[in-house]
Amino acid sequence: MNYDYDLFVIGAGSAGVRASRWAASLGAKVAIAEKYRYGGTCVIRGCVPKKMMVNASSFTHEVHVMKQHGWSVDGISHDWNQFRLAREKEIERLSSLYQKTLNNNKVEMFHGSASFVDQHTIAIKNTENGEVKNITAKNILIAPGGKPQKLNVPGKEFTIDSNDFFKLEERPQKTLVLGAGFIGVEFAGVLNGFGSDVTIALRKEFILTGFDHSSREFLQNEMIKTGIKFKTKVNVEKIEKDSQSKLIVTFDNGEQWSGDSVIMATGRVPDVSDLALENCQVKTNDYGAIIVDDAGKTNIDHIYAAGDVIDKVNLTPVALHQGMVITENIFADANKKRTFDLENIPQAVFSQPPYSGVGLTEEKANELGHKVKIYTSSFRPLQNTLGSMDEQKTYCKLIIDEDSQKVLGVHMVGSYAAEIIQGFAVAVKMGATKADFDQTIGIHPSSAEEFVTMR
């Protein structure tokens, strides 16, 4: 049978754009459909604009440190709207670069939502005029990403989600963040840095469930130092709006909170609602994530999925990797079977202070049966030594397998954590031992040297 395309991609985020471009470079005829802006969650409403906001809000700490070093910083103020417009201009530029890259690689682009008609046929509904066009493809990659999920509580319509956060035209003066995953923790740090009164409400005792416990406990205590308040072990019962348009949140312990805005950072779910997967018989799990094998193939041989829609490790570099693996398995050397490599993936939370880690957490290492030896260090980095003794500290942690002396995990809370851990991720990936770390000469004075001097 003759098909319109060798590969059709649904979703122009990290996985979709990488797969499209690479497939086209290998000689395939490729098309892609995107219902919103090119670049996906990361570029449009995730990593990139969020990191810009983290950078902007962290200057308040820098100003504090400047004063300690003799600088006069009187009269400094921030214009939220000016920053927002500058940020959006840069996002538009990045989005246009994605389109330019696809165009240069001769990938045909459709601006609209895509849904399955059958296992080889896709209906594309044009975003502008609503017209529907059917196309056929030999291979199909599903990569539409995820979408925010709100708690199903009375008054949830008064809250904003993680997409809405980037549309705020004014900074809320008093905010409650519901949820303490990386999105909630990062948003709380941003607003606190800009001067808002911020409280995080969470069901458990500590933030960042699933991350290394002692590291996240340390981070939570450092966040308290910055002025962020916490309501732990609570659930929301209802959210109301009073006559002055203030929001009132009632918790299951009887306590209440009132303020300007409530941000629901309560997770994201795969964005599969428009795909009509029933028409192609692609299987999903109980949470709506598309089920794939270790190379991104669904239960239908020529249909693949990658990125947040498969809900494995929802990180941009992982989505890029998955897009490459799928494309090469289809269009490159068919005898060389490639699979997703999801081990020792470095991660970062752009909290304030930031947290980053690679490899196993202490809890996971114990769960897997390793006999572990733990090395930790907590100290005031040099830039904070001219201030008071309660200035923000840095935390470093090594998790070692006592029998093999292999480094199982490296974790850090403190300035430049992501930049530092990225380098150590190479060492962990290569199977470095504690002796390899000990024999490495440190860079002095730096926070990074702590990892090669811990005894």
Report on this structure.
- By secondary structure, the protein is α/β, with parallel strands linked by helices.
- The chain has 3 domains: 5-46 and 83-148 and 269-331, FAD/NAD(P)-binding domain (3-Layer(bba) Sandwich), CATH 3.50.50.60; 156-266, FAD/NAD(P)-binding domain, CATH 3.50.50.60; 353-452, Enolase-like, domain 1, CATH 3.30.390.
- It has 11 helices and 20 strands.
- The protein has helices at residues 14-25, 40-45, 47-68, 80-104, 162-165, 182-194, 213-225, 316-331, 362-367, 417-429, 434-438; strands at residues 5-10, 30-34, 108-116, 121-126, 132-142, 146-148, 174-178, 197-201, 229-231, 236-241, 247-251, 256-259, 261-264, 268-270, 303-305, 347-349, 355-359, 372-379, 394-401, 407-413.
- Strands 1-2-3-4-5 form a 5-stranded mixed barrel. A 5-stranded antiparallel sheet has the order 16-17-20-19-18, with helices on both faces.
- Helix 1 (14-25) packs parallel to helix 8, helix 3 (47-68) packs across helix 4 and helix 3 (47-68) packs across helix 6.
- The radius of gyration is 24 Å and the shape is globular.
- The termini are far apart.
- The mean pLDDT is 95.
